[in-house]
Specification:
By secondary structure, the protein is of the alpha/beta class. It has two domains: 247 residues, Type I PLP-dependent aspartate aminotransferase-like (Major domain) (Aspartate Aminotransferase, domain 2); 130 residues, Aspartate Aminotransferase, domain 1 (Alpha-Beta Complex). Helices cover 38% and strands 14% of the residues. The strands form three sheets. A seven-stranded mixed beta sheet has the order 1-9-8-5-4-2-3, sandwiched between helices. Strands 10-12-14-13 form a four-stranded antiparallel beta sheet. Strand 2, helix 4 and strand 3 form a beta-alpha-beta unit. Helix 2 crosses helix 9, helix 3 packs across helix 4 and helix 10 packs parallel to helix 13. The longest helix has 20 residues. It is globular, with a radius of gyration of 22 Å. The protein starts with 15 loop residues before the first helix and ends with a helix. The model has no long low-confidence stretch (mean pLDDT 95). The structure holds pyridoxal-5'-phosphate. Pyridoxal-5'-phosphate binds next to helix 3 and helix 4.
């Protein structure tokens, strides 16, 4: 029987240049971003300059995690205790967690069958809740109609924080995700598009938001050493009223990321080659349904979602177990209990008044999720689809 033997969690090695530079930093010991000699510019500040340039954003602030970048994003949008924050219900735990951490309450918004935030529900919930901030997760790389979304946000005076944990490098109508809202958050945690173990970025074009994010990140009064720097008078205005939340990135992680930056565009092409192979293979299996990428998006296919139409929800755990026995690791977004990185919105029980969101539940009920590490190649993707096709054939067979 055909089996697949590569792990779904193995990333590529850090480029040799990054390993060398990391050793250099370990040898001189200047790991803290503000620990520089003379006119030296720290690795973190260089990374901020390089990422801002690549992203096409004025400012970049490197952080200890993606979740921390989201929290800073909410804070610089003025979100505080008791405020309400709109958020699409299809997302991962750090998103409601970040809202909770700033003392605010999530107002969950439905998604459509293709995994995008439901714009009419967004508008309805904006009116009903009076929320002035939207934390938009481009979950699993599915980008909503951003012009229509921003028009709703503008009409209701809503600030937008884009969570780009899955869309670093993705675009809508040629414009990079992260450059639509007021501020964006990225993650460089191991399973994202660049890998520093933990880490993240906040990007924005707004002087005051950038200055606040820098001071909030824990700049003491050394903000002048940052890689991308708003004018001094902006700091003068905000520095004494912006609390220090200590979530800086360190030079070791920064150098590890810097060594990956030159490969990012090529890696995006590699992901899409794997994704497109899987998409074509899975789409051809009767009983599997993949929402088409009909939107005006340039995606980065670092994971794939599809629906097991021919399998009843009750049988999905069994189907996944059979695939797993043959080495194909799929995760189920419809599961009642959260498992590993996957969880459904109703497992975040610290949210008061958890709503019932039938459209989101229906979209996720049969949705499975597969990670696509760059340690796979096109032939691997063909083996994976073959195994899923074999297993699906049993479920399509008439009962009895
Ligand atoms: C990974 C991730 C984040 C940020 O996670 P960290 O582990 O804190 O870097 C935020 N949102 C989503 C949707 C994610 O998958």
């Amino acid at each position: 029987m055909l089996t697949f033997t590569k792990p779904f969690t193995q990333q590529e090695p850090i480029p040799e240049a990054g390993i060398q530079q990391a050793l250099e930093i370990l040898r001189h010991g200047r790991l803290h971003r503000y620990n520089v000699m003379g006119a030296e510019i720290s690795e973190v500040s260089l990374l901020e300059q390089e990422y801002a340039k690549w992203q096409g954003a004025r400012y970049c602030v490197a952080t200890a995690s993606g979740g921390q970048a989201i929290q800073l994003g909410l804070r610089v949008c003025g979100v505080g205790p008791g405020d309400r924050v709109l958020a699409n219900a299809y997302t991962l735990a750090p998103v409601p967690g970040a809202i909770h951490a700033v003392g605010a309450e999530p107002v969950l918004v439905e998604i459509d069958a293709d995994y995008h935030i439901d714009l009419s529900h967004l508008e309805e919930m904006a009116k009903r809740s009076g929320a002035k901030t939207l934390l938009l997760s481009h979950m699993r790389g599915h980008i909503a109609d951003m012009e229509a979304l921003m028009a709703i946000a503008r009409a209701h005076h809503i600030k937008v924080v884009e969570d780009c944990a899955h869309t670093m490098g993705a675009k809508w109508q040629g414009k990079r995700s992260g450059n639509f809202g007021d501020v964006a958050a990225f993650s460089t945690q191991t399973y994202k598009h660049m890998n520093s173990g933990e880490g993240g970025f906040l990007t924005t074009d707004d002087d005051e938001m950038a200055a606040r994010a820098i001071v909030h990140s824990g700049s003491y009064m050394l903000y002048g050493r940052h890689g991308t720097l708003p004018p001094d008078e902006v700091f003068e205005k905000i520095k004494l009223e912006s609390a220090n939340f200590s979530c800086r990135m360190d030079n070791l992680r920064a150098t590890i990321i810097r060594s990956q930056m030159p490969h990012l565009d090529r890696n995006i092409d590699r992901w899409n080659q794997l994704y497109d192979t899987l998409f074509a293979g899975l789409e051809a299996i009767a009983g599997v349904d993949i929402p088409p990428r009909k939107q005006a998006e340039f995606y980065v296919g670092s994971s794939i979602q599809f629906k097991l139409k021919a399998v009843s929800a009750r049988d999905i755990p069994d189907f996944l177990a059979r695939c797993a026995a043959r080495g194909v690791e799929l995760k189920w977004f419809g599961a009642e209990k959260p498992a590993a990185f996957t969880s459904r919105y109703d497992s975040w029980q610290y949210i008061s008044d958890l709503p019932d969101l039938p459209a989101t539940k229906a979209a996720l009920e049969k949705t499975v999720d597969m990670r696509i590490p760059l340690t796979f190649d096109v032939a691997d993707c063909q083996i994976i689809t073959q195994i899923i096709a074999d297993e699906m054939a049993d479920y399509r067979a008439p009962a009895g």
